[in-house]
Amino acid sequence: MVISNTNRHIAPYWGEEPSLTPGLNQLGIRNVAEQLFTTMLPGLNNVSIRIRYYSFYCWVIKQFYEGKQAIIDKDFFPFIRRAELLVALINATLDDHAGIPGINFATAQCNKSTKIFSLEEGADIGPGKSTYWANPGGVLRQYYIASLEELNLVAQNKKYASIYNITKTEGYVNGLMLANDFAESVGDAGYLFLSILQRGYATDIELVSLNQAFCMKLMPLNNERDNLLHMLLQPDNPLSSDYSLHRRQTIKFILEFVSKSKCQLRGGDFARYMYDNYHDSDDITAWGWYAYYLDNNWQYQYTQIFHEILSVLENDDKQWIAVDKISDEIANNVLSDFQISPEVTIKELIQSLDDKQRRYPVAEAIRNLLSFYRDNISNCEKSEIYYQRQCIIAENFCNYMNDVKSNLESKVFAYIKRLIVNIIYRHYRVSFRKMLQTQKATQKFVFENGCLRFIDNWDATDTSPRIDTMRNFLIDLSIIQPKDGIDVLTESGLKLLSELSNGISAI
User: Fold this and answer.
1) Using CA atoms, how far apart are residues 422 and 412, in angstroms rounded to an integer?
2) Of 263, 273, 288, 505, most Cβ neighbours within 10 A?
3) How far is Cα 104 from Cα 88, in angstroms, rounded to an integer?
4) CA distances for 307 relative to 33, 277, 294, 423, angstroms
5) 442, 431 in Cβ contact below 8 A?
């Protein structure tokens, strides 16, 4: 039995009170969109937005091993943490330091009157200490390491599995190559950086003297910049037997989008562009972004409906509300918005749909979903094959389309009621599965004897498909340039687009 008190979930069964957490994937259907953009843009994430950190980490990891006959593995992450803090302190002396992890801490330190900055005080973890980063493995372990491994730039140390070393794989951009490129870029400033790490403190004058060489947003036009671009253009996973070039192909599509669209590159706009320009193509990358747009929209619209369910609960003056009452209320509101009778079928509703946005959120969500069903059902069979090839065989937008197809003769009122009930059960099932796996409670209502009791509300959000990260990378590499509020291709960007469009490898 679930015991509830106001909006607190006191105890599931006989357990102690769990701490309620927001969660994110409330209905369990964001995974498909996330898996698609992960496949289309491997080696990136949504938090590491400065590409130069890839070469910096290769260099600093190499320096950890440099000149040592033997290493002490427990010294690895403290060394990394001090290097990360020093980079943040250096970049804090620059006007533009966007995307630098630990920059808030570093800026606060630089704003003090002190002229000496202790790396031990700011980076080394200890009881009650405030440092630049909470994770003991630093920014590297929390943000970058998975991407560096996926790109075959670093790998686990063969002797000490808890730490890493750079790769030396021939035939591809590897960790050693980028480490050497970074060393060449920073020149003699690298020796000063390392001497500061060794002694454990830096002066304000030294930080300023290093800020050009160690600026993480700008690079000279040299091997480092060229090889970072080559890294993005080479096979998605250089060591995988499953050869793919989704990242390179996505970059080509991004450059096409920028060349045609007078706007700033954003994930939602790019995904819509890929959807609008998909015409039953055999290009699996083009299909991937087309499918991403559909799956992301599907999870968004379902979550909009879920939000309305929670709003009905929140605004009702009764503590417990029957599921049947909630589904009746929402279904009647949808019929009223569409101005149709309960006897209208799903097929008839689809035939009458136009582009007019509905006022009631659930009616608009259903209009949106059924419109996408109508416009994309002809691609469903081919898409199901592509989903299987990408090992996405659980729930995807094809499942939704097949469900609609099997209910075309169903009455709209009954169909909406079933949809509401399914979303309620879906959320409750997903939330309890999460509780079993993570011991974290994310449920937004209590469900007992066919009735619901409100706990918290939840807004619909889009997934973030790494396009913002790629935009920053391409700006750092001087492929894209922001100009008067829009993004344009530089001369190098136009040249790269021409090469990619003409099938030239560009690496």
Assistant:
1) 15
2) 288
3) 9
4) 20, 31, 20, 11
5) yes
Sequence-ordered alpha helix ranges (H) in 316-411:
323-338, 346-352, 361-376, 380-389, 397-405
Contact criterion met (CB below 8 Å) for 5 and 424: no
Can you read off the two tokens belonging to residue 97? 């330091």
Residues 6+ apart with CB under 8 A from 441: 9, 12, 18, 19, 20, 21, 431, 435
Rounded Cα gap, residues 451 and 119, in angstroms: 57
The rounded distance, in Å, linking the Cα atoms of 120 and 295 is 47
Rg for the chain (alpha carbons), in Å? 27
Task: For residues 470 and 264, give the distance between their C-alpha atoms in angstroms, rounded to a whole number.
Answer: 13
For residue 210, pLDDT beyond 50: yes
Neighbours of 202 (CB within 10 A): 24
492 in Cβ contact with 46 (< 8 Å): no
Q: Which pLDDT value is given to residue 241?
A: 77
Q: Is 61 helix (H, G, I), strand (E, B) or coil?
A: helix
DSSP classification of residue 362: H
pTM above 0.85? yes
Angle between helices 246-260 and 284-315 (to 10 degrees): 80
Q: Which two tokens stand for residue 404?
A: 């609609």
Strands 2-5 and 445-448: unpaired
Taking alpha carbons only, the member of 114, 82, 88, 116 closest to residue 100 is 88
Q: What is the band of 432 on the pLDDT scale with cuts at 50, 70, 90?
A: confident
Contact criterion met (CB below 8 Å) for 54 and 151: yes
SS3 category, 96: coil
- With beta carbons less than 8 A apart as the criterion, state whether 91 and 83 touch: no
How would you write 133-168 as a 3-class SS string?
CCCCCHHHHHHHHHHHHHCCCEEECCCCCCCEEECC
Give me the chain's average pLDDT, please. Answer: 92
Dist CA 297 CA 388 (whole Å): 20
